[in-house]
Amino acid sequence: MNQKDLHEKILYPVTRVKAGKAGGSGVLVYSEPDPEDSGKYINIILTCQHVIDGAISVKDEWDSLLKREIKKDIKEEVANEVFDYDGSKISSANSSQAEIIAYDKGHDLAAIKLRNSRPQEYVASIYPKDGIDDLQLFDDVWTSGCSLLHDPFASKGELTYLREMIDQKSYIMYNAPSIFGNSGGGVFHGENGTLLGLCSRITSIQLGFGIDVMTWMGFGTHPSRLYEFFEHHELQFIYDGSNYYDAQERRKERQRKSLRHLFIEEKDADKVEVLET
Fold first, then answer.
1. C-alpha torsion sign, points 148, 153, 156, 159
2. What is the Cα–Cα distance from 195 to 82, expressed in whole angstroms?
């Protein structure tokens, strides 16, 4: 990639995300015309779940349809900054509220939708699913994010481990320096600038009363898990061009089916208990 490519594919799509007292990075992965609102755009950003965790709470609420209390996740809006550039210089930082449309604590992934409906010019492309098996050690990568909540910048490195298992989840390891605040930022392939995954973890060692951070041992979401997240939460529109609102309805219907299934299971369990007594 030349200098222009590096700016447009590695730097420009990266955003800064804040949720309460916490913050990190995000990557703009979708900006397409709103099929139901002419002249407006739907803008989606990927980030790590732990970056926006402070905006999510679970509460018991009465459901008038089911006639019982159920657990509901309450999602507050988060703040996001998209940066405008004049070459290598930031010309402005545009802050917008965003709603959480999907999150997965196990995968440490989340998708947020900007309230800002203006078109965004620089959008990251997802690394192709059929190319995942072709990744090799020493492949060049770039990490790009808001280290310590600084304005976005990129660091170059290489893939150093293709499949590291942490808490039963797969990660790629790289030696491009990363630190707190990089979480949610992008891990981009050095050849074509496509998004391999998100910066998610760094290695640290407890030394006495302090912590020593190994910035050259960073872990990003394995690209296969990006696709698992997309498919589970009906977010395939991000990479396959399908309709956003159709996906939204499928996601709601899946939630309704899961809730009904859980309710039926619990009622059946109650019946079994009565029979046994």
1. positive
2. 18
- Do 97 and 184 have their domain in common? yes
126 and 189 in contact (C-beta within 8 Å)? Answer: no
- Residue 242: name the closest of 252, 232, 234 by CA: 234
C-alpha R_g of the chain: 20
Per residue in 15-26, pLDDT (tens digit) is 999 998 889 999
Check if the beta carbon of residue 26 is closer than 8 Å to that of residue 184: yes
CATH code at position 106: 2.40.10.120
Q: Which of 202, 186, 222 is nearest to 106 (CA)?
A: 222
The residue type at 266: E
The model's pLDDT over 127-154, given as tens digits with 9 standing for 90+, comes to 999 999 999 999 999 999 999 999 999 9
Domain that holds residue 74: 3-242
pTM for the full predicted model: 0.88
**118 vs 13: CA distance, rounded Å:** 15
Domain total in the chain: 2
Kind of pairing, strands 153-166 and 195-207?
unpaired
User: Which residue carries 């589970």 as its tokens?
Assistant: 232
